[in-house]
Amino acid sequence: MFFTEIFRMALGSLRTNRLRSALTMLGVAIGVFSVIGVMTALSVIQGSIESGLSFLGSNIFQFAKYPVMNTRDPEEKFANRRNISLEQATEFKRLMEGQASAIALKCFDGGKPVSYGNVTLQGRTLVGTNEFFLAANSYTIAYGRNISPDDVDLGRPVTVVGASIQKKLFPSQTALGKTIKVNSKPYTIIGVLDEKGSSFGNSQDELVLVPITKFFSDFGHEHRTINLAIQSTSQATYNDTLDKAIGAMRSARGLKLGQDNDFEIYSNDTLVTAFAQVADTVRAGAFVVSVIALLAAGIGIMNIMLVSVTERTREIGVRKAIGARKYDIIKQFLIEAVLLSELGGLAGIVTGVLGGNGIALAFSMNMVFPWFWAITGLVVCSAIGIGFGSYPAWKAASLHPIEALRYE
Prior knowledge:
This protein folds into 2 domains: about 5-50 and about 275-405, no CATH class; about 60-265, no CATH class. Helices cover about 55% and strands about 15% of the residues. It is built from 13 helices and 12 strands. The radius of gyration is 32 Å and the shape is elongated. The mean pLDDT is about 85.
């Protein structure tokens, strides 16, 4: 028998039992969807991190109270650490004078209302910082000027705002010189940042930068910790600068010889590595779930094919009586099993890719197609069809033609 004829007969058999075939394929689709959806989503997020990681500039490392990904803190090790105070940050800057090209101080306060006239924007990110925030976070000034050292030293009520805030508060006029209120505190706009877009699904253009001294004066010191971003003069001096900075930070924090660091150190590479570790754990979990689902789907395929063999015993006898070989019967039933598995796999791949890329659309990330996992899924589905369809196919091919013809 020609392969095309066998393929046509297999399709005809599946069409004859549409509901049964659809339910069997659904089991395969769920297993494939569970892994393709997760892998697509992780690829989207990881691609966004690796291509759009820009809140730390080049040759930058950072000191902070908490680690970059603090998902668990059962003994409150990090929560019980001392905050990095403004005094400690200032002492660190003094100790590092001439050792780094930039030292940015950053203290964040999310969810602050920003208003001008009758327009109020809720939930904007307020950042107390100094003149090096732009260099450390890859921002540039669209117009106006940056926060200056004098602004910080004198605690001036001035601010540099993100492009999104400028557009919403001043759609048809310049923002320079205008006084806005941040949580009812007045600040004069001295500069507007260039538009930067989104990162990890969050807008980077809704920042309100103010001198860090004024930040603490207006909003208090309690429960606030400073992050310090240090930029070495070049990649060649990066390690040397890092070593000196760790020593300076320990000194500013008053740590004695033998005491462990009570602050975290991370960089762009650290962030990527940390996410990769989380992603690997999620991938492993998705793989286990998909294996269990596919095994269950494979058992379903075997069960359906055994039922099909029983229902078509007389047909098998007729085909054998007119010359069909054992090999032809095996091919027919194996192709049916593989078709069931592959069609379910294709449905799982399509829904998984759409579901995973739904995250990309929701958070304005670049969409991806996981070719490796899609091809792997098809190969695995073929293996499931062949593996779980082999016994029913062998059973069908082993039927004695006379006994099969007598079957009612």
